[in-house]
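G., before I forget:
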Amino acid sequence: MPSAAIIGSSGYSGQETLDRVLRHPQLEVVALGSDSLSGEPASALDVRLNGSLPPFVSNEEALAATADVIFLCLDNERAAGLEPPADAVIVDLSGAHRLRDADLYPAWYGFEHPRPGRLDSWSYALPELYPPAGRLIANPGCYATASLLALAPLVGAIETTGVVIDAKSGVSGAGRELKPSSHAGFVLENLSPYRVGRHQHTPEIAQALGFPVCFVPHLLPIRRGLLVTCYVQPGEAADLRGLLEDAYAASDLVRVLPEGVTPELARVQHTDGAELALFDDPATGHAVVVCALDNLGKGAAGQALQNANLALGLDETLGLRLAGVLV
Amino acid sequence: MPSAAIIGSSGYSGQETLDRVLRHPQLEVVALGSDSLSGEPASALDVRLNGSLPPFVSNEEALAATADVIFLCLDNERAAGLEPPADAVIVDLSGAHRLRDADLYPAWYGFEHPRPGRLDSWSYALPELYPPAGRLIANPGCYATASLLALAPLVGAIETTGVVIDAKSGVSGAGRELKPSSHAGFVLENLSPYRVGRHQHTPEIAQALGFPVCFVPHLLPIRRGLLVTCYVQPGEAADLRGLLEDAYAASDLVRVLPEGVTPELARVQHTDGAELALFDDPATGHAVVVCALDNLGKGAAGQALQNANLALGLDETLGLRLAGVLV
Amino acid sequence: MPSAAIIGSSGYSGQETLDRVLRHPQLEVVALGSDSLSGEPASALDVRLNGSLPPFVSNEEALAATADVIFLCLDNERAAGLEPPADAVIVDLSGAHRLRDADLYPAWYGFEHPRPGRLDSWSYALPELYPPAGRLIANPGCYATASLLALAPLVGAIETTGVVIDAKSGVSGAGRELKPSSHAGFVLENLSPYRVGRHQHTPEIAQALGFPVCFVPHLLPIRRGLLVTCYVQPGEAADLRGLLEDAYAASDLVRVLPEGVTPELARVQHTDGAELALFDDPATGHAVVVCALDNLGKGAAGQALQNANLALGLDETLGLRLAGVLV
Amino acid sequence: MPSAAIIGSSGYSGQETLDRVLRHPQLEVVALGSDSLSGEPASALDVRLNGSLPPFVSNEEALAATADVIFLCLDNERAAGLEPPADAVIVDLSGAHRLRDADLYPAWYGFEHPRPGRLDSWSYALPELYPPAGRLIANPGCYATASLLALAPLVGAIETTGVVIDAKSGVSGAGRELKPSSHAGFVLENLSPYRVGRHQHTPEIAQALGFPVCFVPHLLPIRRGLLVTCYVQPGEAADLRGLLEDAYAASDLVRVLPEGVTPELARVQHTDGAELALFDDPATGHAVVVCALDNLGKGAAGQALQNANLALGLDETLGLRLAGVLV
């Protein structure tokens, strides 16, 4: 059975990755890295974790453990500086290896990339659109995943200027770190845009689409879930619905909703799937494409497992949380 | 002291209008109309209302009461059919008299306007932009108020095509009526767009701006508050910030935030004010204008009182809820 | 493979039951009853349901379908009047067959029980405490499940007077029906007790414990999840923790938390498990027992499946939602 | 005009106190103390604050400013160590001077009281029950305020054993400090009890009532608002409703709801009032008394202003937020 190590396993994306590895019938946890919990039993992270798991070790030790797949759940700068072990499949959930142009890192991520020459060796992998190639996998950002699921199939059939992506995410997208903008006294019964025109997922989306977009995220007073509303101008005689339906016809995870059905977060929360819907705006001729997903699922850990499965030659959805019909 | 009657006083906008009339030092309630509560004491609506108020009467009786100002808090079709009493100032909080072109009503409101020839006699009044003229006042919609506060001062300095308004509102915007989309089991921990490209505030915004917009509203899992994120392309050398600051320099209710401050609903909830902020998007050259307000305050009852004050020659903010510095 | 029919499948408990039947590897849906959706495809209830399911039929037709297990997800009075088909296992999720004393129905449920003589033939089944006996199964109420998991193992070791149960539930506990108390404008950012001293789960709890309790439920501004805080006076030298740990040592679904760990809804939502914790109150000598579960999971549909599994001789947790370690 | 200084003005209770001082027609701010914001303009705390206010100074400087009333909005231990300036009215919003018995501080507050001999000089002031006496005022805790409003008038008419107080509070009760339990990812769509049997308001309630109580607080996923559900056993022929109504007949802030009306947080949020309701439990003979208030209003800053008004000989409700009839 392939073995897995999780580096940075005590953050939100680490914990969610662990959740899916534990559900996975063909992966075995060999190392749980966490600098803050090193030496503690797994239950120190969550009481639902028990004695069958190894105790936490430092992230360095976890990296050194011989694992077939390594999930990197670190902050961007830390992940960028790592020398990835040879042979293992590495899935990096951070943004450290998503941009091919190292020059973009200072402006969008706030640091000089320490290993700019190695960015080419990473594969930006969003399986339905860009399957992983090779063993070094840059797992897309939550906002980028939703935006690209909505827009990538339409490239060529829409105008490349004036594309607007208005995004909304639950607070878990900002991680477990304590900061004023994650304080419940700020978040509850509130809504606010943030990093307008400066969010680091913007160049990631532009890189994949091939043209710039105007991207504005908003913080929602919900725990998890993310929805993007994308505004585009279709080219003449474009069949946008056909393009979307074709793109995801074979997918177990991405559903194009029938006309008249409105996407909603409740149907994708706690799952690794996504919902897409297409609307027309008669007043301006715009098309509006909406994508809903769980920022910690398809937007992070679910997609990381999906990528790992593909890289390991396993069934794509093993360990993933498929949708039921919960209320 | 001028007298006031509220028609349809048991809905959300009616109750909020009553709240402000009761706070108003120079208005006296003479009639509370409600077909469902007719004959009941005011406390039947809310235990905080007491014996100093007249009991509810039918809406027809309330309309017939001689009042100096009448607030119409009815559904669109009902309000459209009313013959307004002579002499009184009438503030219609519904959409029945907002559109000058009667032909738009069937498509956007779902009914033929019963009094198309009279639409011209109503003044669409958003005081900071379009003060009331005459005694018949069409009070703007909540989404339209926010959108116009954000965009109207910029007309002439922005391109008139490609304008996108992504709007988000708390559930009280949908009224007290029971419907599946207002059920808490649907709303909580959820987000969904609705009436994409079909919302009735769309032509109201377009009429005031002079060009069409792509408008998409979303339902937020919050009680009250509304935020619009407007995407525009500035003309050459346009000073959008200067235009906004000039437009509201004299306003006690609309605040243009300094650069670097992000609008948030928490600062406008339970008030009759609004917040505006302007951002640039370096990737595409768009400007992003955000407006936050309380859908029941500046978006409904607060603006209705403001309009009534102006029409009656009273101080504009009497009875209104001005912002404190609540957490 | 055993066959299942769901009667009243378009309400919350019906939909959640369906969710679990679809996850169940050894149950097959043969009939979906819903009077409101009769004739519609399954997708009319939820877009995630697809063509592999039979269309809705009327509840009467669904009851007449030959199924090995029938889940009754009807309102109390309707369920009380049904003549259950012979042979099938019947799991009634309503309160119609929970009280052995028919005389209690008028006061607590508001109707005369139409089949008082048959109440004895139903088995009140909460598997960890009272496994199902026979094919007619009264599935416990959500509040009763939590209260009994907390208190039943302690009977004999606590005083039988002065027991207080303060309960809090998310809004889905009140069902999909539209009513003012489920309107999001009422629920959001709010909290209120309801039916104080009059809730119909009170006699159900008392019947199982053998003594009366003071039970007060509160409506929480959350979608799903239920927590009871139970206040009891321990007898001399009582080992309450030992009693709880013994009671659930063999359970896959009920977890007694270690000392120092606080129960929380987030760990049980969307699962069919429950969490228990025990605290002492030094000031008064009380013990405080807390139970958290998902009102639609262990509090309804999860337990219904668990009971059905036991009655059919299947593995107890088939089809159930077991906890992961989601954030 | 009397002058006011606020010490610790950048926390929640400090900001809310400032809100009310600014609304107060007869108080003038002379010093805003904040060690973290010292030297910054008032707008650094909140953009709604403007140039008419003095900039922040250190807490020490603010204490030294000659003010007629000083509001202490500090943490418990810091407030306990302060030497209060002579002459000024001091309202301490912390718990530093609430307990008369200094020996209770180590166990309940975690520190030795540094000035135990001075506790007697402070007046525990909850105006409707215990008006301030003297110029040193210990402002009650939020939970204690609600519990005492519910129970103090009943002392003598209820049994003094077995009293249970189940309390629920919004997250702002825990202050602006960053901690895991205030992270929105923990709070949202969640509920949990905390400090069971160990909360520091427990001895404060017991001291005022004269007997111990079993007190358990729970953290609600709401921004503000607090509700206590109190369980008591009435003595023979006790007229609890009469006692409550008599106690608050003259109050502008505390309302005893008529029979059949249920308290709810929505009616007291953003106000300085409180709601009380009384229910009987037929099954056990208990009485259930519920009190709802805003933890930052009547539970903190509103009551602080009320106490200050009384101590300064001003009208009791100046500056307070009285209830309207907002939805």
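Chain B touches chain A through 51 residues (CB under 8 Å). The two ends of chain B are 36 Å apart (CA to CA).

More on Monday.
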